[in-house]
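Re: the multi-chain job from yesterday

Posting the exact lines I submitted so nobody has to dig through the queue logs.
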Amino acid sequence: MIATRKGTERIVALNAAARALGILVGEPLADARARHPGLASDAQAPAEEAALLAALADWCDRYTPLVALDGDDGLLLDITGCAHLFARDGAGAIQDDGLPAGERVLMDDCLRRLGDQGFAARAAVADTPAAAWALARHAPEPDGLAGAAVGAGIAPGAWRDALVALPVAALRLEEATVDALARVGLTRIADVVDRPRGPLASRFGRELVRRIDRLRGDEAEPISPRLAVPLLAADRRFFEPISREEDVRGVILALAERLSRDLERRGEGGRAFELALFRVDGVVNRVTVGTSRALREPARVLGLFAERLAALGDDFDAGFGFDLVRLCVLEAQRFEAFQSDFTQAGEQTEALDALIDRLGARLGIARVARFLPCDSHLPEARQKLVPAALVDTTALVWCSETPVAPDTPQLRPLRLIDPPEPVEAVAMVPEGPPLRFRWRRALYEVRACEGPERLVPPWWQSPQPPQARDYYRVEDGEGRRFWLYREGFYEADAGVELRAPRWFLQGLYA
Amino acid sequence: MVAVPRPDPDRTLLVELRSRVAALEGRLSSEAQLQPDPASAANGQGPARLLTGVAGFDGLFAAAGMPCGTLHEATSAESRSGGALTGFAAALLSCLAARRAGAVLWVTEPDGGREAGAPNAEGLARFGLDPARVVLVRARCVAEMLWAVEEGVQAKGVCAVVAEMRGAPRALDLTASRRLLLRAEAGGATAFLLRHAGGAAPTAAVTRFRIAARLSGGREDRRLAPLGRPGWRVELQRNRDGRPGTVELEWDHAMRSFAAPADREPVVPRTGDGPAGAPGTGRVVAFARR
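And the result, structure tokens for all chains:
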């Protein structure tokens, strides 16, 4: 793998065979080619690499929900409280190297699966992120295993024995600090870790002391997980991967039942659910559904996911099957139980909410909308379409006074054309109603007209003074009714030219 | 002395007073009320037929009034007549929604809004259809739209479903529309297919209305609102539940009901060439002429 650094093509990554030839990372490609003409090289693609690492991080979600990216080639997993789940017989049994069984099994499993996917990974388990980082990146490679998946572990409390022999660079210091330390003969962690802190800090900066604290575990080092940690999760692993859609549905139902018991204990219902399907080849499919009210019936949860999977259609690719299926509750809310009455109003609302959820799951939540009234006098800003699943229906208050006189004009059109379409209109007098107009290349004769109604856009929203609009409701020769407006006035521009206002068509009436 | 049904100041006053009383009492005018069907009322599905109060329209159907809980179709000649088509649908929905609980599901095609605009909440509100009861679904293709309509007519909390499309989509064939019809009849909600610039493609809908705007031509005697009420020339091209025919309708915003156009109203009630409908709004009222 090559990349251009400081004007020359340099080697940034190597495979095991190249390393065996004695080629080093950072060497110019030309030098390496001179020694080994048969060298195959490929340009580095940072975007693809980042995407791959992100996908890998998602995949690592199977071990713990707390997965963070570490630089551009590492992952940090916080497995506190997760490891014992992986111990096969007797949680907490200590292995001969001092590592608890759960941690060992987890790391081995992770390395084996990554190896199967074709990654050469190095892993370490330790008490603190800093210790694990040091061990994974700077531990000497065992002979004959160069480039293969290697895992190492530090028993709880035993960081000193494992790490003191490592170079100071393993403290994750900047290059300048490492050089400064080397100049005074401090090259190993053992040389700095027990020195008086004051002189170290004053000479090499506070960063060094902080790194040492983090290594010892005196200072906590938080990791920032990539994905939000779900409130509740239930998963099921399969020895034999499943791929049929019916099987997946069955698993979702079983997981939803487990979640529903947990939700019931908390007195809550889920508002957002996520289904993660871990494919054998490392691809993770995630499907999220939202609901318009707190929900915990397993059959309804399954129904929503079934809609989503049906919407995916052919895009849903099970590949060689899924070996882990996980269902999470991302968002929960108090579950309001209601009692049905004779009017069945509650049941109707619930049926409508269920319909909105079903439609939203298949079409996308924003495509199922309601009209939210907005405080604006401009017709295009008067209403807003908001997702029906998220809006509180008590906010949808539309003024609906009954006109008392039988011939009250209809002020607003039934259909709104947004943005308004320009039309060519002719008026008898400059600021009078239109006589005829041309819209979409068809000519319309105005037979009758109501108006004008003047609306001015808010002056505080644009730097230029807003153009007033004079709206007319017009009827053409065949009875069709339109809503036209004239933007601006006839005015002398700089005293020379008469600037004609423009006409627009914004709506259709019945 | 029989008053000629012209916009007479007294008559205008009477209509206004009647509408005020109706609004105060929270009842609807007697002409526009529905006859509850015992079977469907027992199901909790509301009345089975919609009486508009216009004899010429109600009489076109076999049992007086447009059947609910089934599939109707309305088309317009061009998409620039979309206002008239939407208005007719909004008027029918307003009548339906006043008498039934539940939401109105309005399903549109993705680019339907580009050609004829998008439904406007304030315009619907003026027709008496509360925008808070409308759920707007923007489907991505016709197949999704048909699926959404099918889901909608089966749901309990929905009283009417509108599917809006342009032309005659290939996916909406006899089989698909028959499926919608059966679902609507089983579910109880009324479904409307609004086809802008829709030709005479065959569907399984019970009716096919051809909607055109009715020319009011401007009325000099209405100084405030020369355009007058919204009106339609409704051609019932196909009717499985009665006979085809053409009728002119107007919408009365104050009464929230259909009305026969005032200037074409027959003085003598129409003799029946069908079952007798409910008495129309254009009742003969006697006034002393000043």
